[in-house]
Each structure stands twice: as structure tokens, then as C-alpha cells.
Amino acid sequence: MPQETPATFAQPWPARDDIRIRAVQTIVTAPQGIPLVVVKIDTTQPGLYGLGCATFTQRWKAVQTFVDEHLSRLLIGRYPGDIGDLTRLAAYSGYWRGGPVTNNAISGIDQALWDIAGKRAGMPVYELLGGKVRAAADTYIHASGISIEECLDQAKSFVARGWRHVRLQVSTPGGGGYGAPRLATLYPDAPYHNGWSARDYLRTTPDLFAAARESLPDNIELLHDVHSRLTPKEAVLLARSLEPYRLFFLEDVLAPELWDRLPEVRAASPVPLAVGELTTSLGDAVRLVRDGGVDFIRSHISDIGGLTPARKVADLAELCGVRTAWHGPGDTSPIGAAANVALDVSSAAFGIQEGHIYNDATHEVFPGTLRIEDGWLTPNDAPGWGIDIDLQAAANYPAELSGHDEWAAGVRRIDGALEAP
Ligand code: GCO
Ligand code: MG
């Protein structure tokens, strides 16, 4: 049972009833080998609790401490319906704001409070947001391979299972490639044998898409993730070389440090650009949408503070003609995935949703986890997120430190210089 802490911070105004936050705890579990962080908020009403995604898989211990030691005492005794005030308090009380640790901690609280609000209203969260503007969210899925052939075989199997959008990644020489298995080095004489070469990546990537257009049905949409590795000029060269293959989007051509250059790259790019999984504040996301740097905004919503800020981004995107493609990889808990879908079906700015196939163990830990069917994600109609957690099952999958550190340590150019992972 979560530990009960005495109320420290008084309710600032009379609440409309006497339900109060009783306990706040983080749960860390790794049913698919990836540490997932979830915040559980219990209330004084027996059986009424909420769950929120706080997954910063690489630094989960920091998020856990942040919630359990710093934020929970601000919340105990407060009325759970004051979501705006409670999340602003969580942010302002630290004085310095933003960043993935802070925002994931706040997101855990924010999404758990939305879950409670839905359960109290007897409504799914998408309905609290104004209700559906579409029946379901179309998703894209990741196909990858050590060779072009292997990648396209996987893509074909996804198409056969109903997907209309497939992201293609193929291995590049050395250990630093993104999104596909490691390949033996081609650079035995270089200072760092397992390095990654932007030059070779730019030369070979169009071959993958040329082959895809020849062997996949013509109506299938193709996507690709660069993972922040290029200079602005290289980004334009890649985008132009991919023009004949009609990409749905080209993702993360530049690292966040270079985002000021996105408008010029976008202006010169014949393919739509998707950016944003590395936004770590609402302000970052707003600048990308407002300043003309992106065709698709794809924040990881717990990294900008949860549903409350993300719905503002969705509204701004609608007004600016930008579409959403919320980040939804395996380091998003099923609660976070449900939050993505609640936004997807309730926002006119929806573009596409990144899909992830959760394994059986994840379904066991999180009953109600959404399943992609024929490429579509349909929200759960149960109140709140409609997703539960089995604490005993969660404990059967203890988390270890993320393997991302080991991988990132090897992402280097062939001269040995570290590269953005
Ligand atoms: C994506 C991403 C992820 C990230 C991962 C980092 O587009 O899905 O780039 O796969 O690399 O979330 O932890
Ligand atoms: Mg990405």
C-alpha cells in the first residue's frame, strides 16, 4: 500500500466536495525489458485512483525520487479536480522549470489527475477533451532490417496485417546506426572502427526508398527517422534525394541544438518534416509549431509535462496548419499511449500516431492496454484512460538501468567523435 503522508499544503479554495488526494507513489516496471514509470494517485474515496505516465526510461530513478520525495507532499490533502493548479504548483515550486526529469514527474501527476477526473465523471478522457472528431487514430509501425531486402520483407508483413504507414530503417556500417540492427564495420582503417558515416548514410538511404517504391503497394505511406544526425545542409540534400519516393514524413533531421535552422531546411525540403520527440518544454513545442519549422509536431507528451500542455500544442497546431504525430515508442507506458490516442481522436490537427506493439507481459501488467488493429488505434471507452495496473504483476518485472547508456556510448563518427544518438 502507498504510504500516507500528512497534508502539508492547504487547499487554497473550498472544493466542491470532500474527496482529497491521499497518497502518491511511482511504480517502475519493465515487462518488455524497457523501464516504464507510472504515477499512481490514490484518493480518500475508496477505490478511486488515477494513473499517469512519467516514463523517462534513461533516467527513471531521478523521476521516481522527484515524484516521491519532492512532489507528493505538495499534493496530499488537495482536491484532485484542481488539475491546472496542482500541475502549475508542481512546476513553479521548483523555481527552475522544464527538462525531462521535471516534466515526466509532472506528467505522471497530470495524467493521473485526468484519469481520476474521467473516472469521477464516468467518461473517457477523450470526451472530457471535447469528444471525438474521428473514430480512431491511424498508426505507423517500424520496419527494419540488416539489409534492404530484410527491411522490406518486414514492411510487407506489416502491410499484410493492415498497416497503411510504415517507417523504414536499414542497418548502416558500424554500431552507430539508428533503428536497425548493428552491421559489421566497413571502416577497419578508421580510428573508430564501428563509427557511423553521414556521407555513406546520405549516399545509401535513397536506395532503400527506391526499392520500397518498387516492391510495396503504391498506396503505402513511407516514413524515415534520421535521429538528429545531420547538418542543415545535409538535411536538405537528404530531403531532396528522397523527393521521388513521396515520403509521408522525414523525421528529426536536425538535433535540438540546431532547431533554429529548421525553417530554412523546411523551406528547401520537398518532403514534410516531423520533429519534436526531444522537446522538453511546452515553450520548445510552441516555437517549433509557431515558427514554421515543422509539418508534424511529435512531442513525447510526458516530456513536455503531460496532457495539459500537449492539448495546448494540439490546439496551436490546428491554428497553424501543423499536424500532430505524438511520439509513441516502447519507452511510453500503455497509459502514455492511451493519452496519445485521447488527443488523436479529439484533435482536428491529428496527422498520424506512432504505434508500438506491446508484448503479453505488458498486457498482463497493464490490463486494458490498447491493441492496434488493422493499423488503427481506437481509444478505450472505459472512464478515465480505461487502463489499470496490476501491482503484483508489475513487481515481477523489475527495472534495471536503461541499456540506452551503453548504446549511446558507442554512437560515434568514424573518427571517434560522439554523435547525437
Ligand atoms: C522514435 C524514437 C525512439 C527513441 C527512443 C529513445 O521515433 O520512436 O526516435 O525510438 O529513440 O524513444 O528512448
Ligand atoms: Mg524518432
Automatic annotation (TrEMBL):
Location of the Mandelate racemase/muconate lactonizing enzyme C-terminal domain: 148-272
Gene3D superfamilies documented for this protein: Enolase-like C-terminal domain, Enolase-like, N-terminal domain
SUPFAM superfamilies cross-referenced by the UniProt entry: Enolase C-terminal domain-like, Enolase N-terminal domain-like
Classification via PROSITE patterns: MR_MLE_1
SMART domains linked: MR_MLE
InterPro entries referenced in this protein's UniProt entry, alphabetically: DgoD-like (IPR034593), Enolase-like_C_sf (IPR036849), Enolase-like_N (IPR029017), Enolase_C-like (IPR029065), Mandel_Rmase/mucon_lact_enz_CS (IPR018110), Mandelate_racemase_C (IPR013342), Mandelate_racemase_N_dom (IPR013341)
Protein's GO biological process: amino acid catabolic process
GO molecular function: magnesium ion binding
The protein's name in its UniProt record: Mannonate dehydratase
Organism this protein belongs to: Kribbella caucasensis
